[in-house]
């Protein structure tokens, strides 16, 4: 039997969960069809999901046929919960991308497509709601090709033209075809698996139209990958069961996983659970290509590689809003403990506790996620909480390079570290490198420095926002065989990075960045002037508006700070006819940086947890040297003249 892990991916309301229900019903794994809007969908078992009528958490279901076993992973379709969707992509054999015939390719559909490309997941397309008025297959197919890729092929009819379209993407197959040779099924399967073509099917999940043909296609045109010999696995989800027990969801990529295995130091697997909806059975082991939820592990995290497998790439979809949490009926410690459990399940929440302010802050994608968090806190932990108006998550970067120095030498301690700080590529984050000779600093000291660099979220000196798009390279330093002890190089490292940033600030070479949205705005054509004027006021930019009938579409970009509440204005001035879809597109130069820097009133020197000053020793005692005077005291020579 062919065994596959398949993800259901879609924009909200495209009919993704309904399609999952239809596939399970058609395969005989469900006796009764559930409906999302009725709150009885098999794959939306959570109370909050039933209430809202959307998928919020990823869920698993088993679809079994005589020669195919699909483990279906139904994923959230709302942008606010897209981080969970991205977590699942790293363990998929195939994805089913559901497109609503009426809505076509939305901005979020494009985002999902780019994520599928990032994780190199083969894709089947199911165009849903084809029974809506005026829906024509060829027109929809052309739009898919225009907005996503040319290599979409209609698999609903396997005729001569269909075969010609397939072989056109591969020179060797085209040559075989022109020579009259038959193209084999496995060659077509390989084209799909290697993402050279994308099969498209049409139907209506609600009416079970096209479901049987789609299942036949999934069975016929997929194949399993060659397993790795040694044990390898990947964590793709953390959750907790109804009793509060922590579940680590794992896909085995090589070898097998057995119960009672010590998978991590001091952490042993108690149970291996095979879930189907909310029900599960306990297994003694799982083998290559299978997924399960295991108990007994406490330090795992989504994207973690186990055995010979490396961690997944860092997430593309990240929150851009920060809110302060205000518990109403419990103390802050109880609320913080509950939020830490939720952060364990979704690391992108990034729960921060400010000791100085006695405040809890968390990061979210949008207001729908905030409303769900509020409900989760109440339902799971009995905590009633409010949230203050959200702040924008700014970041900082640099525009010039500098040699930075940190020195830490209280009495009987010694460490000095030199770094080269350079601007990085947009979207690169913080990149670390080591170009220090072992004759300068021994291996152990270099390891301490690089570990310290990696373990800290480095803050900028304009408003104290996280650093990004910067390369930090260790280039030299000095230690003492007599006085250097553990922690000395960590102190020198943190002080060094900050010292360099302060020098760059004086040179006006530090820059504030803000998150931007890519937006898709559809409004009545009579309101185009109003919309374009609004976008310009928001410091946004846009492509040429496209008018179709009585509606006009405007696609562009704008700062999150300006556009995040614009949906309410759109609804008001279009009397409910307008639609606005916003997707985070990355960080760009802040449009009002002077205003933000001034209002933050951040003093980088007074930030004692991130001090730029160094400590030197003289006359038998340590004394603080301010960041600007450090170059006059360094004991390892500067490597660059900048």
TrEMBL record:
This is TetM/TetW/TetO/TetS family tetracycline resistance ribosomal protection protein. Keywords: Antibiotic resistance, GTP-binding, Nucleotide-binding, Protein biosynthesis. It comes from Candidatus Lactobacillus pullistercoris. Residues 1-226 form the Tr-type G domain. SMART domains: EFG_C (SM00838), EFG_IV (SM00889). It comes from the Bacteria. GO terms for biological process: response to antibiotic; ribosome disassembly; translation. The keyword RNA-binding does not apply. PANTHER family: RIBOSOME-RELEASING FACTOR 2, MITOCHONDRIAL, TRANSLATION ELONGATION FACTOR G-RELATED. Pfam families: EFG_C (PF00679), EFG_III (PF14492), EFG_IV (PF03764), GTP_EFTU (PF00009). PROSITE patterns: G_TR_2. GO terms for molecular function: GTP binding; GTPase activity.
